[in-house]
Amino acid sequence: IDKYMGDCIMAFWNAPIDVPEHARHGCLSALAIMDEMAPLNERLAKEAEEEGRKHIPLRYGLGLNTGLAVVGNMGSEQRFDYSVLGDIVNLAARLEGQSKTYGVDIVLGAETRAQVPDMATIELDLIQVKGKTVGVNIFALLGDEEMEQTRDFRNLRNNHEQMIVTYRVQGWERAKAKLSECRILGEPFGLDGLYDLYETRIAEYEANPPGLNWD
């Protein structure tokens, strides 16, 4: 764990010593946080009830990114901090912010996702984040290797991939049909917010076509 930044906790792996499969460790840690949130909110709700307070559930979003960064003691002789700096660190922060946009808990960068091919992930979008001039592919982490093997997840992933492909070629009617299937298949995974977003986009693009060279 590196530092607290307001309501954010920053952590990194693979330094100061090498950590094999560091991307996987990051993903498993994110999933562990996800598993702990429901019991934590239950405890806080009980405390609030006992004290006569209103309980406001804690919610969270996580962003993970993988790549080369500068790591070491940053600062001056009087004050310094062992931390990491670099473009991949900035992008990780941007990905965390996108969790709210896409209605998912954990957002992965492309390189992180590439290092955990056996985990349950789906593509979210191709986006241009602040500070970038080209689009980056982003993914949602839904579960571990065991979930990836389930029929429910694989059915969801296959239909979701077809929805994304038809969306990108502006096949709006087929994309809407696939979106309806994805809503049903994605219900156990809590993806209503994601599919609400795509439904709104498709409706807007049907009314105002984006043109042939859209990106």
Secondary structure: elements and pairs:
Blueprint: E1 3-5, E2 8-10, H1 22-50, E3 62-64, E4 70-75, E5 80-85, H2 87-102, E6 106-109, H3 110-115, E7 120-127, E8 136-143, H4 145-148, H5 151-168, H6 172-186, H7 192-207
Parallel strand pairs: 3-6
Antiparallel strand pairs: 1-2, 4-5, 6-8, 7-8
Characterization of this structure:
α5 packs antiparallel against α6. The two termini are 37 Å apart. With 215 residues, the chain is an alpha+beta fold. Strands 3-6-8-7 form a 4-stranded mixed β-sheet. Strands 1-2 form a two-stranded antiparallel sheet. It has a two-stranded antiparallel ribbon with strand order 4-5. It has 7 helices and 8 strands; from the N terminus they run ββαβββαβαββαααα.
Taken in chain order, the helices and strands follow as: EEHEEEHEHEEHHHH
Global mean pLDDT = 94
Spatial sequence of strands, sheet with the most strands:
3-6-8-7
Which quaternary structure do these chains form? single chain
How many β-strand stretches? Answer: 8
Number of helices: 7
Q: What percentage of residues falls in helices of 4 or more residues?
A: 40-55%
In percent, how much strand structure appears in the residues? 15-25%
Which outline best applies?
A: globular
How far do the termini sit from each other? Answer: 37 Å
- Helix/strand/pairing category: alpha+beta
Largest sheet: 4 strands, mixed
Question: From the alpha-carbon coordinates, what is the Rg to the nearest angstrom?
Answer: 19 Å
Low confidence ranges: none
